[in-house]
Amino acid sequence: MATSRPIFAPLSRLAASSIAVARYTTPQSALLPLQSIRCAATKSSGKKKKKGRNTFIQYDLRKADQFSLVDAMHYIRAFEVGRNPHSSKYEVHVRLRSLKNGPVVRNRLRLPHPVKTDVRICVICPPDSKHATEARAAGATLVGEDEIFNQVKEGIVEFDRCICHPDSLQNLNKAGLGRILGPKGLMPSTKMGTVVPNVGAAVRNMVGGSEYREKLGVIRMAIGQLAFTPEEMQTNVKAFMETLKKDIAQMSDRITKEIHEVVLSSTNSPGFTLNGEFRGPDSISPKELSGPM
Amino acid sequence: MVNIVKRMRKLRELLWIRVGPGALLLPKEVSKITLEFNKHINGGHRGARKFWREMLPRIKYRNPSVPISVMRHSNDSGPAKLCIYTKSASAPNPSQSSISTPPSATPNPRNTATPDTTAPAFTIDMKMIPESQILEELIEKTGATIIEPSEQELQEMKDIADFKVRSEGDRVQVREHLMKQRREEELLRLARGEITATA
To answer: Which pLDDT score is estimated for B116?
Structure first.
């Protein structure tokens, strides 16, 4: 204590003059050494409640470098060289002009070229009904009732999604699978939208379906496998943007949202702002980007 | 989303992928390049890994239609090889060259059923040699043409280098300022008796 005083002498002299009046106002602070009062006083006076903003900070895109789809893919493929083409994915990020506290965009769609196709789906419905054939046709891997229950009870859970038909719901509940499926998040329930009468359509939506939602004004979604050709990517991006625009139009009575920026990136590459064109004046032929990595 | 300034700076520095060692045009005969080396640098696999990280993106950028694949094993004494396959070595494949639109790269039974088993035209042993030497050997064996950076690109590269030097200086300055501030705060707290002096 004693050693640090002389160092602070000039500093305290500076601060003292302005706050000296308020020094002995509270009895508690009077007990503390002089310097602490000064500091406490400066701190409390400097603290002001900041007024929050309810929009995201927007920036001007006119100065930004923008790329056509082919150019962006040209760079991304160079960045992803030597990576496993099955683990790296193209991602699209859409920046929106919207309120921080407003409703968010959230939906699911089926891309024309699905990114992930190996989802195993289990459908619980009477095995010989017409729903079962529908589900099988749509791409379900497991269809049935009692056999599935027995399998699950033995601990064999070989599926990632589970859908149930309302007719079989009673049997499902009777079988008491909640303890096994529940923690895995596979137990069908009406609340989750996994108990549906139209099983075929639900399965079709799940196979290759992908979900997106707005977080902090940005929507991010995997949009393609690394090995996609520019044309495939174009149809995927177009399909995604159209559904997104439809979603926004649906919300237009409550809130206005606008698309500000669309960025294409991948697992190991920087983000490229797209300018909405397929290919620029001096980009390479899309054919060169269609081969294997 | 990443801050726009950060993103744009990254994009301005994209120049590194266009010019520099490895910016070369491979002759038309080269049909495929494969690399095989260890996951770790132990056992002389350092150069191979550096080559992949630094020069392969440039080669891929300049030759987007040449498939390049990297296989990595976890055996220190395993091989570190760079294989170059050429079209003349394999039997000419008329179906690939005559179709106006090339087959889709998406894995499907049509293009994954036939594995390529032709022997490589050239093989470079990358063990224990630095990445620059690997590149030299690659150029020598394939006869690739090096793309020289233009005057404008050289100027841009210089600008970026200058900027980096300046930012390093700024960083030191800011850090000094910050440390000074923190030291003062610490001393103030010490003077107030909130913490006891240990030194």
So the answer is: 57
More confident residue, A161 or B127: B127
Write out the two tokens for A39: 């500091």
Domain positions in chain B: 16-146, 150-199
Assess if residue A62 is contained within a domain: no
Which has the closest alpha carbon to A104: A262, A216, A270? A216
| Beta carbons of B38 and B45 less than 8 angstroms apart | yes
Residues of chain A found within 8 Å of residue B101, distances taken between Cβ atoms: 287, 290
ipTM of the complex: 0.79
Report the percentage of chain A scoring pLDDT > 70: 74
Tell me which CATH homologous superfamily contains domain B16-146: Glutaredoxin (3.40.30.10)
Q: Which residues of A touch B105 (CB under 8 A)?
A: 85, 227-229, 290-293
**Which of B4, B64, B68 shows the shortest C-beta gap to A82?**
B68
Instruction: Decide if B84 contacts B120 (C-beta within 8 A).
Output: yes
CA distance A78 to A269: 9
Answer whether A290 sits within 8 Å of B107, measured CB to CB. Answer: no
Residue A52 lies in a domain: no
What is each CA distance from A81 to A104, A264, B33, B132, in whole angstroms?
A: 36, 17, 11, 18
pLDDT band at A252 (very low <50, low <70, confident <90, very high): confident
* A54 belongs to a structural domain: no
Six-digit token string for A20: 């000296």
Claim to verify: residue A105 and residue A130 sit in the same structural domain: no
Chain B hits for A86, CB-CB cut-off 8 Å, are: 107
A79 plus A214 within the same structural domain: yes
What confidence tens digit (pLDDT) does each residue in B115-138 have? 556 677 788 888 888 888 888 888
pLDDT of residue A191: 65
- C-alpha distances out from residue A49 to A55, A99, A100, A130, A134, Å: 18, 21, 19, 64, 60
